[in-house]
């Protein structure tokens, strides 16, 4: 069901600005003096998610690490210039002592790419790691492949012979299990050299330390337009030595490669390409594809125990199906992918700067885009007939970097509702249909009478271990929180996409949750906000507000469905409740909102105001926004907070990036908004100097800038 949407976004959002981007033809970039804690390396899916930790700042001083920072994902590249080898990427391990280190001249990143300029003797080398972000093209977005490209130019004006040695290891598919045994194979024809590795004993739909134990790792390049290319699979020190000392590779697989644990001794899958003589002009890019394939990618089990296997969208019957053909097509599309990425980067960065007047905001947006887009599997139902239903698209989100109290790493939850809510602005801006694909399996599972007839409020997730999706019929203390999230997201999707299919199909379920909020939202009692907020007060002001906004959202949903009676009821209840809420929530001196009814001692970020603006409900009076803006301005001007404003002034050592950005979005003074963004920017840069050097973490201590929970969330 579709309808005309007049919804317009007018304010900055969590990760992006939901505003029509005014394209500026100048090349956009992030601040050259900003050093984030980690840069995306190959970030294209839950299991292709490698980062370069800048604690060891040079590209050739360490290996990339998996997103949870527990595990290296080994790869190594050297360039041989006039028979002298220079280490370019990855730590020197198992390499000849005579090999020199290329010098890193500069690094920068955009929303889609991370780029390094290196000097290897007389050759300048540009290394680019491009993970395409194509939210309107589900086939490309769901493809678990990233580009690694190298270009060369002579800095002394003379021609120089150039060879490239590059390898990767089975760490890309199973570092979490040191006893795992992996095999190695190759496809080598006139079009493609494709190095592949799989576990000898794969386990479907099972993880070890966040790695999927049923992946196929791929390292590939096009064989055409290269003077010569060789490969070898075997012991790391043997193969790396042969590759960089001038001997060359043997085009063979070591027969012992798959007979021992992958680290005893380490093995590599390597290629050696001869580019010939290169002169002062920049060379044609040498492009490698890095990937991890899985099919099927998600197993969905309903409450009757029936299982459905879902395949990645890129494997639809409309395109190539084998790893060879998919990878070859990906490499052949490199030039177009580069141009598309540059346009995407320019549009996005210029839009963020234009609306926020803040380069710092552009820095932050650019850092998180690949991470947010890589956390999901976009799927279609697997069909034994070879034909897939392209209308039945679902996306399943992995909780990467869980923020539940006591969780140091990912909780592994499937489609956690609070995580999806925090990322909603990103998906709305890039392609609102993505949010619909993520909401659909949550709504579909909970409409089952086994759940909806037992539990009157929304679930927290679709199970506890990705990539197995299975709703659990369990009680919890976040009924107001999650029901409100689902109603707010459902309306936001319908308004932004103009597609009312979800709210029409699941209207009865949404109404059930709205009725639960009518009964509970105004007086939440001991119900909880997200646990990582560490706010446990009775009758939380912020939680009550979200519940009331959820009721108002149901009123809008009813109106869109032409149900005037329901619309009138929910709008009336929400107006009545917001009036009572205001009386209960404002401090006795009318200077700020309380965090708990009547508790005058604690204040903080009432970030759920954001949903009122997101949905354009105009439910909360303007004076509330003005009051909160003045309160946070005073906090900023006090000089007491360097890295961010606390969620709760009675707990000054905890805040969150996502909720702070929600709060910043509703400030009526742009100087206050940008001041809050500046603090997050400073925190992000401070992580580079901290002992916990990781991808950007959500939960942290604003007094020290040290992160605690939510790595890469």
Automatic annotation (TrEMBL):
Pfam families from the UniProt entry: DUF5127, GtaA_6_Hairpin
Coiled-coil intervals: none
Keywords of this entry: Signal
Domain of life: Eukaryota
Residue ranges of domain Glutaminase A central in the record: 358-708
Domain Glutaminase A N-terminal: 112-349
Signal peptide: 1-28
Name of the protein described by the UniProt record: DUF1793-domain-containing protein
């Amino acid at each position: 069901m579709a309808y005309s949407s007049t919804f317009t976004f007018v304010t900055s959002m969590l990760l992006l600005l939901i505003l029509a981007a005014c394209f500026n033809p100048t090349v956009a970039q992030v601040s050259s003096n900003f050093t984030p804690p980690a840069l995306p390396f190959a970030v294209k899916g839950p299991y292709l998610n490698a980062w370069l930790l800048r604690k060891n700042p040079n590209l050739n001083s360490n290996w990339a690490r998996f997103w949870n920072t527990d595990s290296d994902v080994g790869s190594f590249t050297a360039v041989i210039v006039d028979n002298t080898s220079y280490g370019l990427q990855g730590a020197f391990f198992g390499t000849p002592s005579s090999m020199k280190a290329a010098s890193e001249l500069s690094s920068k990143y955009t929303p889609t790419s991370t780029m390094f300029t290196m000097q290897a003797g007389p050759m300048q080398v540009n290394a680019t790691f491009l993970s395409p972000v194509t939210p309107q093209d589900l086939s490309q977005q769901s493809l678990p492949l990233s580009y690694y490209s190298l270009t060369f130019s002579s800095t002394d004006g003379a021609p120089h012979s150039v060879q490239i040695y590059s390898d990767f290891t089975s760490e890309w598919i199973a570092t979490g299990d040191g006893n795992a045994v992996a095999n190695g194979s190759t496809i080598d024809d006139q079009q493609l050299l494709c190095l592949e590795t799989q576990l000898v004993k794969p386990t479907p739909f099972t993880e070890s330390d966040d790695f999927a134990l049923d992946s196929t790792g791929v390292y590939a390049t096009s064989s055409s337009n290269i003077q010569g290319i060789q490969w070898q699979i075997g012991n790391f020190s043997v193969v790396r030595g042969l590759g960089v000392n001038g001997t060359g590779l043997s085009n063979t697989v070591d027969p012992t490669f798959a007979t021992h644990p992958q680290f005893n001794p380490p093995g590599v899958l390597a290629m050696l390409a001869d580019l010939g003589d290169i002169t002062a002009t920049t060379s044609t890019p040498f492009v490698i594809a890095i990937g991890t394939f899985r099919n099927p990618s998600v197993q969905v089990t309903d409450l009757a125990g029936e299982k459905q296997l879902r395949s990645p969208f890129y494997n639809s019957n409309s395109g190539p199906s084998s790893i060879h053909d998919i990878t070859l097509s990906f490499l052949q599309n490199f030039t177009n992918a580069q141009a598309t990425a540059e346009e995407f980067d320019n549009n996005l960065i210029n839009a963020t700067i234009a609306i926020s007047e803040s380069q710092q905001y552009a820095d932050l947006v650019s850092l998180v885009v690949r991470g947010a887009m890589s956390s999901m599997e976009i799927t279609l139902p697997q069909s034994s007939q070879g034909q897939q239903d392209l209308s039945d698209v679902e996306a399943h989100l992995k909780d990467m970097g869980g923020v539940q109290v006591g969780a140091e790493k990912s909780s592994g939850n499937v489609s956690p509702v609070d995580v999806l809510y925090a990322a909603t602005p990103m998906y709305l801006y890039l392609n609102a249909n993505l949010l619909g694909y993520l909401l659909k399996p949550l709504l579909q599972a909970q409409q089952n009478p086994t759940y909806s007839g037992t539990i009157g409020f929304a679930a927290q997730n679709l199970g506890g271990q990705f990539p197995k999706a299975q709703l659990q019929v369990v009680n919890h203390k976040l009924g107001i929180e999650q029901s409100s999230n689902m109603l707010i997201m459902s309306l936001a999707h319908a308004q932004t996409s103009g597609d009312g299919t979800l709210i029409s199909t699941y209207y009865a379920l949404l109404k059930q949750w709205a009725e639960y909020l009518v009964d509970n939202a105004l007086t939440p009692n001991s119900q909880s906000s997200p646990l990582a907020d560490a706010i446990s007060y009775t009758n939380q002001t912020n939680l009550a507000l979200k519940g009331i906004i959820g009721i108002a959202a149901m009123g809008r949903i009813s109106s869109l469905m032409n149900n005037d009676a329901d619309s009138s009821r929910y709008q009336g209840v929400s107006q009545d409740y917001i009036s009572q809420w205001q009386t209960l929530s404002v401090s006795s001196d009318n200077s700020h909102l309380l965090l708990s009814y009547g508790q005058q001692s604690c204040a903080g970020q009432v970030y759920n105001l954001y949903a009122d603006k997101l949905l354009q409900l105009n439910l909360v009076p303007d004076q509330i926004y003005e009051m909160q803006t003045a309160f946070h301005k005073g906090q900023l001007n006090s000089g007491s907070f360097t890295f961010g404003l606390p969620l709760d002034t009675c707990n000054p050592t905890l805040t969150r990036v996502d909720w702070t950005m929600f709060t910043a979005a509703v400030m009526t003074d742009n100087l206050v908004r940008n001041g809050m963004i500046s603090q997050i920017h400073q925190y992000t840069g401070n992580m580079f100097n901290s002992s916990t050097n990781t991808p950007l973490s959500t939960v942290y201590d604003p007094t020290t800038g040290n992160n605690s929970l939510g790595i890469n969330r």
